[in-house]
Amino acid sequence: MASVLIVDDAELFREALRAAFTQEGFEVVGVAADAMAAIDLTREHEPDLVMLDLLMPGMSGLEVLGTIQKASPRSRIVLLTASESAEDLLAAVKAGASGYLTKDTPLPRLAAAMEDVLAGGAAISPAMGGKLFSALRDLLRHASAGSMRQSELTGRELEILTLVGEGKTSKEIAEELFISENTVRNHVRNILDKLGMKSRFEAVNWAYREGLINIR
Prior knowledge:
Helix content is 59%, strand content 13%. It has helices at 11-23, 35-45, 61-71, 86-95, 107-118, 126-152, 155-165, 170-177, 181-195, 200-209, and strands spanning 3-7, 27-32, 49-53, 76-81, 99-102, 123-124.
């Protein structure tokens, strides 16, 4: 029999979940109304599942998720929330949640989804599935665009971009690389054209974020 800990600041919702999970054959080892109680009960029982409310007074579900994982690494954590924010969804995935379900999920479907999580799967509300797919698509497009931009820059252009990032002028760069100022300006212009950017500052920030340059 799988064990579950229920964490929610709304008493009526906690008790509804307790009844639903008990009816479906789960062992409810505890209920908690806040993050600190959730941590203590997780350490005590090491449940198979932790049903964690996203929005609670004090520490939110996202803020406490990592601590709960450390308290019981074997526990799988599913966030229950009224939030349909794609930002919250991505934060939950990044933090290590095994599911993200909205509170309007019918209780029988909720219990069935937990069986999937226990089997090594994940649970997500249908309304959030499209948002997750859209967010992943955007991230992959960004990563692909970054790779294309990186491959277009030559070693010399990256060298000049690094020096620009160190705050050096075209004259100083020219002196250091033993080339003319005009050649430096041409390189910078080519860099901006390849990256589709308007300023040296924007190009340097992008290259730094992508790990292409190190600024001393």
